[in-house]
Write a structure and sequence with these properties.
single chain, globular, four-stranded antiparallel sheet, about 25% helix, alpha+beta
Length: about 120
């Protein structure tokens, strides 16, 4: 299946044409979008997303954050069957938390989130 490609500033265009993603890139994009949604934010499905409050503050619990990410990805990204690794990279100087994951798709392919999902630590 193919879907529209989203970059950091929205829909991606090349020479005026919308770009599409498929396969592993589509699964990764779906997961990144899911993790950027705060639970309760989308009125049609208030359970969609993650509770981003647990990613904020001075010393968030990595165990709780990892559980929240695993639960959301396995529940809402149909093509992901397992979450193999979740890593957190904290940058206290700029107060950011970068979340990366490695997962396995229903076809057995490895899905990596190399760009990460970044949370402000405020």
């Amino acid at each position: 299946m193919k879907t529209l490609k989203f970059g950091s500033t929205g829909l991606e265009f090349v020479n005026g044409e919308l770009q599409l993603v498929s396969d592993q890139e589509e699964i990764t994009q779906s997961a990144r979008i899911l993790l950027s949604i705060n639970k309760g934010e989308w009125f049609l499905n208030p359970e969609l997303g993650i509770d981003q409050r647990m990613f904020l503050g001075k010393d968030p619990s990595e165990g709780m954050m990892e559980d929240e990410i695993r639960e959301a990805l396995l529940e809402y990204v149909e093509d992901i069957t397992t979450i193999d690794e979740v890593t957190f990279i904290k940058d206290p100087k700029i107060r950011k938390l970068n979340v990366n994951f490695i997962a396995t798709s229903i076809t057995g392919e490895t899905i990596t989130n190399e760009e990460g999902v970044i949370f402000d630590a405020d």
